[in-house]
Amino acid sequence: MEKSKKRAPNFNDQERKFLLALVKKYKHVIEAKGSSTSDIHKKNVVWAAICKEYNSLCTTGPRSTAMLKHFYFNIKHRSRLEVSIRNELNDASLGSISSNDASKDGCDGNTDQIANVLKNLKHARMAQYELVTENPTQDSDIRMESVEINSKGNSGSDFSDDSEEDEPELEVGTDLWAYFEKESDRWVKCSLCGQRLKQDIDKLYKHLKEGHSVVTGNKDENYTEVIYLEDPIESQEERVLKEVQPKGLKRPRNDASEVEISDFGLYITSLLKDLPRNVCAQLQLNIVDLIVKAKLEETGPDNSMEVDRGKDPIENENQQNTKTTNQPENLEISTESQKEMHKKTNTIPKKRTKLKNDAAHENIIENFGKYVVCLLKTFPRTDTNTKLQKDIVDLIMTARLQTMKNRLTDGTIDKLGIRRDLFVEIK
């Protein structure tokens, strides 16, 4: 179980006087009736300063700001009730004095009976407001003090109903004498403004009401203090949204030549997939060589590419190719042994090799098709582009026919009815 917090000790009379003395310095701020944010902030700052000074000088124990504020407003509430009771006692004491005068004129008056009535009236009123004192000797002191004040200040004066209604009544503040300092039997000094006044209850109340209105007001016993912690949220202006018309998407215009080149790349990709890997690799090399040569012819020779004693490597390659092509091909078989070997090879059925078109090989061919498309798009002239496409198709179709010839025998070619002149070697 959680330990209960230790209750703070009650305020004694010395602490009460000390707190009232501190509050007196800032009374114009604490008792202000403004409820704006700046006023509330000032009050909080003042109470924080009072609490700091109180705890630094008072040795009874630390007090929080909330405790000091609660105790101060309790004092105000109780003092207001005490003042109202004191006014009733003053009215009753005046009635007893008038009854004594009437007894002198021939009416019977009993002072002891009047004193008992006043005492019972006082107890009844204090019990009503829960202000019964613990010390019974205070009752006689309060009664004697009220009679003494009335005998000094109000003796010989007549009070009417109108004067009772005009008499101000304190709402806030401590005891009446907390605002005045007694200088002599007849004169008092206001502790708020320092003005000297006669010791007259009506004048003192009037001075508090006119000069210090913060301690007077209506007769409501209970009141509610409203504290605005934050500023009200300012209403934001509604933003009018303008209707925005959607903008049309700008699609890039595809030129007819670009579409044609893209379709050509797909076409050669599909043709290369049916060829063996070695033939496909050789064709890729020949196609790239063909495109690069056409590019160099269009842009002109580059001196930085000259090697091997000033000769272009492409020219060297062309010379080597011409040497190989110039060699005579001996297509006739002279010896009988070669004829027999040729017959044996023709009689033995050739096994058809399975093409391994796996995913990796297909991916390579597709990327090569995209590369060819990119190279062809760099040619600004359509006639050059068209000529390159024709040459590339010739290379691929020639390789396909040669591959088909290698797979088929002479008898199979005759059965299929295919012309032999179509099967030519790749140059």
TrEMBL record:
Pfam families: Myb_DNA-bind_5 (PF13873)
Keywords linked to the UniProt accession: Transcription, Transcription regulation
Region (Disordered), start-end ranges: 149-168, 301-331
InterPro entries (UniProt xref): Myb_DNA-bind_5
Biased composition regions of type Acidic residues, renumbered to the chain: 159-168
Keyword Amino-acid biosynthesis: no
UniProt keyword annotation of Zinc present: no
Highest taxon in the source lineage: Eukaryota
Chain intervals with Low complexity compositional bias: 316-330
Domain named Myb/SANT-like DNA-binding: residues: 7-83
Protein task: Involved in transvection phenomena (= synapsis-dependent gene expression), where the synaptic pairing of chromosomes carrying genes with which zeste interacts influences the expression of these genes. Zeste binds to DNA and stimulates transcription from a nearby promoter.
Subunit structure comment from the entry: Self-associates forming complexes of several hundred monomers.
Name of the protein described by the UniProt record: Regulatory protein zeste
Annotated source species: Pieris macdunnoughi
